[in-house]
Amino acid sequence: MKRIFHYSALLLLVLLITSCGKTDTNSPSGSASESSVNTNTSADAPSYFGEWSVQSIVGSTPVSAAEDEKLIGMRVTYSIEKASFDKDEIMSPEYKEENITKDDFFNDYRNELSDLGIETESVKTVSINNWTNPGSSFIVKDDQTMIFLWDGNYYEMKKENK
User: Fold this and answer.
1) Residue 43: inside a domain
2) Strand partners, 52
3) Which first-to-last residue range defines the signal peptide (predicted)?
4) Least packed by Cβ within 10 Å: which of 44, 78, 99, 111?
5) What are the two backbone dihedrals, phi and then psi, of residue 38, each rounded to the nearest 5 degrees?
6) Do the domain assignments include residue 149?
7) Residue 102 lies in a domain
8) What is the DSSP letter of 3?
9) What is the largest CA-CA distance in the chain?
10) Could you tell me the residue range of the domain that residue 84 belongs to?
11) φ/ψ of residue 37, rounded to 5
C-alpha cells in the first residue's frame, strides 16, 4: 500500500512539473491583430513593396527631437530582396505585419491616428526584423502613402510611380 502511494505521489509530481513548463511567447495566439512575417512572391507582393520618397513631416510625439528635415527627399525601397533607406540597407528583410486599433495606437504612441490624417478604426503597421534605421517600421496609410516615426517625428512617404 505504501508503495502505491509513493508511485502515485511521484506520478502527480511529474505531471505538475511538466504542466508548468515554459511556454513559447513567440508563437501566434490566433488573434486577428496578430503579426505575421511576410514571405510573399512578387506576384502577390504587398502594397508597400516598391520605391518611396520621404515627402514631409506630418506630426510629432509629445516627446520628440527638433524637426529634422534632412530626411525629406530621401529614397526608400522595400522588396523581398532588400529594404533600403538612402544608403542604409538590409538584404533579405523579414517584414512583420500587424493590425493595430486606433485605441492601441494611442496607448502606444500617445498620438491619435487622426492627427496623422488617418480616419480608420485600425491601421496596418509593418516592421523589419533586425533593422533599426529610419523606415524600419512604418504605418500603411493607403497604397500610395506610408508614415514612419523617427526621433519623435512622423514622416510621410509617397510611392514613386514608374
Assistant:
1) yes
2) 76, 159
3) 1-22
4) 44
5) -85, 120
6) yes
7) no
8) H
9) 83
10) 39-97+127-159
11) -90, 130
Amino acid at 31: S
Cβ proximity of 45 and 77 under 8 Å: no
Cβ atoms of 61 and 152 closer than 8 Å: yes
Q: What whole-number distance in Å separates Cα of residue 55 and Cα of residue 69?
A: 10
Flag whether 106 is in a domain: no
| pLDDT tens, residue order, the chain (162 aa) | 666 655 565 555 555 455 554 444 333 333 344 445 554 445 689 999 999 999 999 999 888 777 789 999 999 999 999 999 999 999 999 999 999 999 999 999 899 999 999 999 999 999 999 999 999 999 999 999 999 999 999 999 999 986
**Helices and strands (H and E) in the chain: how many:** 2, 10
Report which of 82, 62, 84, 85 is spatially closest to residue 73, judged by C-alpha positions.
Answer: 85
